[in-house]
């Protein structure tokens, strides 16, 4: 376990100066803080919330749980001690349990002295003369740092839809991604939920149990799989602790960084009765691994995908009693090309007397009023409205910060036509700026804590390279972004993801570029990252520390 050896510099008067500034105290930011601190450089992490946890701080909505992969593998993988000392309680840990874990980690690794809470980074500008970032915070602080690292999260910029009248609502208005820390009471109330993605599907059964009446406003029906949540058995935890090293080796070669073996068989190799028996067994066990432990081609072959779609539609038909409601709930997109949801009694909820499903495809919202929602067919009076409407995913928070890079070009201008990066970790024109889980990295389609560790390690090594070689800055060379974009696109084209509108491709936000921004290479991606570093940071250019300002950039690789 590490000792705290940070050399944080902080002036209370004027500009504070650090070697590195990190934004965001979730899984990735806390890990990056640990690694940067170990280098002996001065580093400070800023977090807008009043506690650590990132996504797990904000997403306190009822039913919020880990979906992928579950305990004890949705956790840090770098430390046997952390695994040994934290007793995971549930297979799909609740938001509260994950937050307890992250609080435990922050204490155990003594991270808190270098984390400043309740502080939003409001602006970040690269100063070409000093090759440093100038940063302003919501507390009026002025900070100078050589390196700026975003660990702001992929699902952190909540999407409040532009539905006419949304600001007229006078009841309680909540967003699942900005849930209050205080208890929210639904008892006896007329509650509306807009959205049936993962957050809606997790919260709807919980809200229905308490509310007087629940109206669900659904735009796209989903294929949800039972979570199969249950307590983690002591022997499972013991086994995970004993097999820690082997399990890590296994995760390193798994396409999604998962601890489970992937099937090597096509869904079309089995006759329907054998296939359905396997689906039934995995359905009863529950969990997202149904998609990967069953067959190897569900995400690449439409015919194979259809077999599981039909199986789940069958489950919906046999679970939901009212035939008209069944029709509204039957999904018809390509399974798993939207974020695959897992649930605890979601479809059963529609058998309750106090739940109404409004199908927005037939009965669209016309406007929201002071006390309800008017759809084409009539009015739904509400005391409370829950927006489970998702996020401006992956790029939203970066664009809200809108850092200004070289030549005074800000990120919004740079990304005006399309999102581009180099390796998903850096952006040409933005020297010494790094992103963990940035666009065009594996981020949300990989084991995120594990992927975040590997990306942070790479960033640490790159920073060490700059410092060891007495460089002022490093940045992606102009033009490398095109090659990287092709690489990302090529990987996506091998799959079925292109066939569906989703937040993976920006379709959920009006005006957002329609571009698939997740790298689907998994282990290949991380191998590529390592090779770039081993190859003297191929594709990057550097500036010597003693060069005159604005001098010609020299090639790093
Ligand atoms: P998602 O997956 O983006 O789901 C958002 C839901 O809200 C989805 O059903 C949307 O329908 C719906 N939506 C969005 N805007 C509207 C409007 N204007 N009108 C009606 N319905 C709308 O977000 P989640 O929070 O559920 O999940 C995100 C991640 O968080 C997930 O991966 C988990 O890990 C946790 P659509 O499908 O676009 O038709």
Q: What keywords describe this structure?
A:
binds ligand NA7, 17% strand, seven-stranded mixed sheet, FAD/NAD(P)-binding domain, 557 residues, disordered N terminus, five-stranded parallel sheet, alpha/beta
> Under CATH, the topology of the largest domain is which?
FAD/NAD(P)-binding domain
Specify the biggest β-sheet: 7 strands, mixed
Tally of domains: 2
What radius of gyration results from the CA coordinates?
Answer: 24 Å
Shape: globular
Please identify the structural class as seen in this structure: alpha/beta
Helical element count?
Answer: 17
What fraction of the residues are assigned to beta strands by DSSP? 15-25%
CATH architecture grouping of the largest domain: 3-Layer(bba) Sandwich
CATH superfamily of the largest domain: FAD/NAD(P)-binding domain
> Low-confidence stretches at least 5 residues in length (pLDDT < 50)?
1-12, 548-557
- Care to count the β-strands? 20
């Amino acid at each position: 376990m590490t000792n705290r050896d940070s050399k944080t510099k902080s002036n209370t008067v004027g500009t504070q100066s650090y070697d590195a500034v990190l934004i965001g105290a979730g899984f990735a930011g806390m890990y990056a803080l640990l690694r940067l601190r170990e280098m002996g450089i001065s580093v400070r992490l800023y977090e807008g919330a009043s506690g650590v946890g990132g996504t797990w701080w904000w997403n306190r909505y009822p039913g919020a749980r880990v979906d992928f992969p579950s305990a004890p593998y949705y956790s840090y993988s770098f430390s046997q001690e952390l695994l040994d000392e934290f007793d995971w309680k549930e297979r799909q840990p609740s938001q509260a349990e994950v937050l307890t874990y992250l609080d435990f980690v922050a204490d155990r690794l003594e991270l808190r002295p270098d984390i400043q809470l309740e502080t939003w980074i409001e602006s970040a500008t690269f100063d070409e003369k000093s090759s440093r970032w100038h940063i302003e915070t919501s507390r009026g602080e002025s900070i100078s740092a050589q390196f700026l690292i975003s660990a702001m999260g992929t699902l952190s910029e909540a999407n409040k839809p532009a539905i006419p009248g949304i600001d007229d609502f006078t009841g309680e208005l909540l967003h699942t991604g900005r849930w209050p820390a205080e208890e929210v009471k639904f008892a006896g109330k007329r509650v509306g939920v807009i959205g049936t993605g993962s957050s809606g599907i997790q919260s709807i059964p919980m809200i229905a149990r308490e509310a007087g009446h629940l109206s669900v406003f659904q735009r796209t029906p989903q294929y949800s799989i039972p979570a199969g949540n249950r307590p983690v058995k002591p022997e499972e935890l013991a086994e995970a602790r004993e097999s820690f090293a082997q399990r890590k080796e296994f995760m390193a070669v798994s396409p999604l960084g998962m601890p489970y073996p992937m099937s090597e068989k096509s869904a079309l190799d089995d006759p329907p009765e054998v296939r359905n028996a396997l689906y039934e067994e995995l359905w009863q066990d529950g969990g997202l691994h149904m998609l990967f432990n069953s067959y190897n081609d569900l995400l690449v072959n439409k015919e194979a995908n259809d077999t599981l779609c039909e199986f789940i539609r069958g489950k919906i038909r046999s679970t939901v009693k009212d035939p008209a409601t069944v029709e509204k709930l039957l999904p018809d997109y390509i399974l798993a090309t939207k974020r695959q949801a897992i649930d605890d009694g979601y479809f059963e909820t529609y058998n309750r007397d106090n739940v109404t499903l409004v199908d927005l495809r037939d009965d669209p919202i016309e406007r929201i009023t002071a006390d309800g929602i008017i759809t084409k067919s009539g009015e739904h009076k509400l005391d409370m409205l829950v927006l489970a409407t998702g996020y401006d995913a992956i790029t939203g928070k970066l664009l809200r910060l809108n850092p200004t890079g070289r030549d005074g070009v800000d990120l919004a201008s740079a990304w005006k036509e399309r999102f581009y990066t180099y390796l998903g970790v850096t952006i040409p024109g933005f020297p010494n700026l790094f992103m963990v889980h940035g666009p065009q990295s594996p981020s949300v389609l990989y084991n995120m804590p594990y992927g975040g560790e590997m990306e942070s390690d790479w960033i640490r090594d790159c920073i060490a390279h700059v410092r060891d070689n007495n460089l002022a800055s490093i940045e992606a060379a102009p033009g490398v972004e095109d090659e990287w974009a092709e690489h990302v696109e090529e990987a996506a084209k091998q799959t079925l993801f292109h066939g569906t509108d989703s937040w993976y491709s920006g379709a959920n936000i009006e005006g957002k570029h329609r571009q698939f921004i997740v790298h689907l290479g998994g282990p290949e991606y991380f191998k590529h990252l390592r090779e770039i570093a081993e190859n003297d940071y191929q594709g990057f250019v550097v500036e010597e520390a003693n060069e005159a300002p604005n001098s010609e950039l020299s090639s790093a690789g």
